[in-house]
Design a protein that fits this description.
The structure is a single chain. The chain is an alpha/beta fold. The protein has two domains: 2-144, HUPs (Rossmann fold), CATH 3.40.50; 152-281, HUPs (Rossmann fold). It is 38% helix and 26% strand. The chain is built from ten helices and eleven strands. Strands 1, 2, 3, 4, 5, 6, 7, 8, 9, 10 and 11 form an eleven-stranded mixed β-sheet that branches. Strand 2 (33-40), helix 3 and strand 3 form a beta-alpha-beta unit. Helix 9 packs parallel to helix 10. It comes from Halorientalis persicus. This is Nucleotide-binding universal stress protein, UspA family.
């Protein structure tokens, strides 16, 4: 399986690429080949007098390539110019990637995590499963927030077709995932004991039984309230390493627009997020 790994060649991304546990988790997911891509500004001209931007970029990219190759991955590198999310997704389509990986750093002084511009735009337009990897700053250094990427998974579902497609990711995650919490959020109008809530509990339990049969310790939980708030509350209680959910498009146009819940979760969660887009946009 093949992944596109987007890098801005920063210390933050190098911390993620250099984390052996993260790379081992990608291997358990099935990734054995990585296309490492960096997107430079279209306004920078290679070969300009007094400019060594191209060579410095190549040196940094080769350093990250060597890290990945030492861990056993087959690696291709790409230096491209243009709009980052378009070039990243374009490469993913061209090589038929199984996964796209982007890093995201929290920038809010209120300690609310805000997804970076490039990561947000990739998430809004990707037609491939996307892993948004959290990177945090500690004492002027960087490290990944959860290096055991898929060890504890919070799966949020509204029982839509795209949520079912996201659940299919457990086919790849089952060797990497030890625990899972399955969450469905019922709107406030649906009261406990109603047929709709009972049906949701039964459907969640059926999914949990599926995971238990695979050796994953799974729990099922129906919550009531605003979907984003309840999923984030479940995250705080369960402390997952990754949140898994579908990114459902609102628009019939070619470009995929994230639904408000998936966008809010991707922006505000402290865990990694694995987003799965609808089949119809591929």
């Amino acid at each position: 399986m093949r992944a596109v790994y987007a890098t801005d060649l920063s210390d933050a991304i190098e911390a993620a690429i250099g984390d052996r546990t993260c790379l081992e988790c990608l291997g358990r997911y099935g990734i054995d080949a990585i296309d490492l891509v960096t997107v430079t500004s279209p306004n920078v001209t290679a070969g300009m007098p007094g400019s060594d931007v191209s060579q410095r970029t190549r040196n940094a990219l080769d350093r990250q390539r060597n890290i990945l190759e030492r861990e056993g991955f087959e690696v291709q590198t790409h230096v491209v110019r243009g709009t980052p999310h378009r070039r990243i997704n374009g490469l993913a389509d061209r090589i038929d990637a199984d996964l796209v990986i982007v890093g995201s750093r929290g920038q809010s002084p209120l300690e609310q995590r805000l997804i970076g511009g490039t990561a947000r735009d990739v998430a809004r337009t990707s037609v491939r499963p996307l892993l948004v990897q959290r990177i945090v700053e500690q004492d002027d250094d960087h490290e990944v927030a959860d290096e055991h990427l898929f060890q504890r998974v919070l799966y949020a579902t509204d029982f839509s077709e795209n949520a079912e497609r996201a659940f299919d990711q457990f086919d790849r995650l089952q060797t990497a995932t030890q625990e899972a919490l399955l969450v469905h959020v019922a709107p406030p109008a649906r009261r406990p004991g109603s047929d709709t809530v009972d049906d949701a509990e039964e459907r969640l339990e059926a999914l949990a039984d599926d995971l238990r049969a695979r050796g994953i310790d799974a729990q099922a939980q129906v919550r009531e309230g605003v979907a984003t708030d309840e999923i984030l509350a479940a995250e705080a209680e369960f402390d997952p390493t990754t949140i898994l959910l579908g990114a459902r498009g609102k628009s019939p146009m070619r470009r995929l627009l994230l639904g408000s819940v998936s966008e809010d979760i991707t922006a505000q969660a402290t865990s990694n997020v694995l987003l799965v887009p609808p089949t119809r946009v591929r």
